[in-house]
């Protein structure tokens, strides 16, 4: 008969599994992509685009006012004084109609 050593069965055979233990593999979870940097990038781009749009709109309004008053001066220079008021009124009406049309195109349609 062989003499048994003081080593337990698990120590002799390390590949034996203990009974009652959970042998499911534990997956390593990778940290999710940091969406904060992407959100910051997109919000910064939106902010820059908005600032550029505001500056461009300011330039357009300045140009429109300049065009409007220069056109009134041209009407005074080109037309007979008795027709100047009529032509200026027609020109102003056209500017208002075109402005309203462009604003309606730019505003989002709710229907």
Automatic annotation (TrEMBL):
This is DUF8060 domain-containing protein. Residues 8-100 form the DUF8060 domain. The chain crosses the membrane at residues 47-69, 89-107. It comes from the Archaea. Residues 1-41 are annotated as: Disordered. The keyword Membrane applies. Residues 12-22, 30-39 have a biased composition (Basic and acidic residues). It holds the Pfam family DUF8060. The keyword DNA-binding does not apply. Keywords: Membrane, Transmembrane, Transmembrane helix.
């Amino acid at each position: 008969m062989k003499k048994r050593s003081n080593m337990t069965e698990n120590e002799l055979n390390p590949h034996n599994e203990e009974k009652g233990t959970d042998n499911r593999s534990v997956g390593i979870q990778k940290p999710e992509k940091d969406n904060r940097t992407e959100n910051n990038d997109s919000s910064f781009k939106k902010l820059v685009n908005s600032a550029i749009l505001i500056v461009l709109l300011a330039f357009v309004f300045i140009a429109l006012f300049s065009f409007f008053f220069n056109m009134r001066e041209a009407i005074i220079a080109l037309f007979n004084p008795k027709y100047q008021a009529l032509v200026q009124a027609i020109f102003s009406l056209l500017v208002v109609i075109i402005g309203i049309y462009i604003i309606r195109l730019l505003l989002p349609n709710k229907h």
